[in-house]
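Might I ask for a little of your time on a matter of protein folding? Here, with my thanks, is the record as I have it:
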Amino acid sequence: MAGKPEPALPPYRRIADEIGRRIAEGALAPGERVPSTRRIAREWNVALATATKVLTTLRLEGLVETRPRVGTVVAAAGAARRRPAEPGPVPVSVSVSVPAAMSSAFPVPVSSAARMPGEQAAGEGGELTRERIVRAATEIADREGLAALSMRSVAARLGVAAMSPYRHVAGKDDLVLLMADAAFAEEAYPAEPPASWRERLETGAHTLWRIHRRHPWLAQVGVLTRPLMLPALMDHAEWALGALDGHGLDPRTVLDLHVLFYSYVQGIAVHLEREAQAEARTGLTEEQWMDRQGPALAGIVGGGRHPVFARVVGELGSDGYDFDLDALFAFGLGPLLDGVAAMIAAAADPAPMAVDSTAGGSTAGDSTAGAGVALPPAGGAE
């Protein structure tokens, strides 16, 4: 009796395997750009959503990475990490593409991806604990968003009475704080930090970005002006403050820079869940929504009121602009770190600038400047 035929691979998997083969064979070398979502869509005649899933799959397999100002490229030693193709779906991820390629590079935990809301967590029967409640609540928020979370939905997921979770957690607000603390504790830093303050700040920013990518709801928790007093979050603060400390910056500047970096991560990550909410509200994927904006965009470009915008858009060519949050995040870190470098350099050489009121010019550290007004060094104390 003939065996059952092998299940056909879905289009995204076949395309990912083909690009992976090119990487393995050396046709695409480490650091070389891989096809963009638009090129994949054209070359294989698939939708942009499918093309986005291709690049997400390759990122999950460690074959490609996103670099600022470059795009998606073959990761270092990517061919060595190539895994054989397996039929079946890619791990569940939260798609947040606006408008073309912005799909989560971090899957929802497997235990969450394997169950539907309302089902008891596999292997988690027995005594109800705070840890089980937090884990179940996190799975709900990861899959459905923070708005779907309630004490009742957690109880239903765990298969217990509706009031049972209240024996361990006071209410939803306290539960969300416990979830956030657990999420921030998922990643730790090396015992020996990098010698370079810049590398240390980069490591901290990318670590926070990974956590927010894994839990899109996390950026919705708390307000920047009312910091979350969470031990695990303070660990990330300690890492960043340690990078900035000891470089001649005054304490206020050190704290300002720490808050700036955290708000940078949070400010981009906040759009992860907002995109998911927009799709749920409108019933439109990002591609469908953008397609409907075509006439409005054409009217703006051709109206003559915004000539620079029209010129920049026109210079993009047929590939258009792929709004990739990962690339945007990595790109934005560079200017921020450059600014910190300038402040540290100024603190190391704090010669004040004196404004010459007679000549309208300025001199640095010139005691003969007469009526000049000494300005404090960049980032210095008042």
